[in-house]
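S.,

Sequence below, as promised.
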Amino acid sequence: MTAEPGSIGGLVLGNEDRVYQQVLASFPLCDMTEEDLRQNPQFCKLLTCLAHHVDKTGLTTSLKTELETFVLFFFHQSEQKLLSQRRIWLQSESLHRALQEMIQEHRVRKHHAAVPPDENMFYETMEKCLLVAKCARKLDPSNTTKKDQPSILGLTPQDVMELMPSENNIQKMKQMLPGVLEKHLKKKCFSLLSYYQPEWENESESLKRCKLSHLSAQLDEDKKKVEALKESSREKKVLLQRQTQLYLSEMTKCVQLLQSFILDNRLTIQADLDKKKLDYFEGKCELVMQKIKAEMVAIKLETYTTDSISTHKEIRKNLESELRACQAEKQSVESKLSSFEILGKEFEALAEEYGKLREEIEVKKWALKEFTNYNS
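The prediction came back faster than expected:
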């Protein structure tokens, strides 16, 4: 069978791209491309027809329904089995913990007060039985442990079971255990009831039993309320986060708008503001300079009094007279030096020799003085 011109397997050419995409989307597990579908129009038509009867995994509608039913049934059975196993484990674990609590409370009572021998024997027998059973379970090579795991200290469960109390004590313990356990559990339930509703603590025992029978349903109801409140809290938290983000975005826009407004206004009044600042700083600078001048004048007035000025004038007069004397002496020395320079190099040699002789005379005078001081 051949396709008519202008169509592909009964499909209009104008819609072929959309049809190819639908076919590829309907069969994602098939390794095909649009080019393959263009080259095989009849195969494309076949896939289009199959798309109404199978899903994306290749299963038919009826087979998928049966498979889903089987999976749901298997899941339901597994869930029921798991719940049963969990219930059994919780019962045994709760019983074991209750027995451990009873033993711990007995130890506390024995520490604070005297305990009857029968009660002491009961708890010691029960504690020993629990300990031996725990050790035997640890040594038991069951399916829960490794087959090739070496035994601890070479012991076997039979070796540990030999440490069990006497059969007579075990029988007595078993006879007393239901009553003691019931009493302990009743006390624990009443404590839980008093903790949950403190106003029920002073009620009668029969009323407490009645209310205790409805406690589980009430706890489930309260648990559902708590879960609903948690869900509501989560929704409100998400809503608060969204509102916070929206608020922050709006605040950011407002800040940007305010910044642009401030910038525009600053540019218009900046020149006038700068001029006023300049005038202010100029006036302040002038004021500071005037204060400095006033302080300098005050310092001069405090330093140079009438007496100090006359004294300075007298000192200046003496210094000027000494300066004139020094200048006259300088002129006379310079004239003598000029007259000595006229005599030439021979006079210079004589002057040097004369200087050396003066130095030797000074040295000998000093030595003679030291020698005279030493002799005296």
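Residues 1-14 have pLDDT under 50 and may be disordered.

Coffee later?
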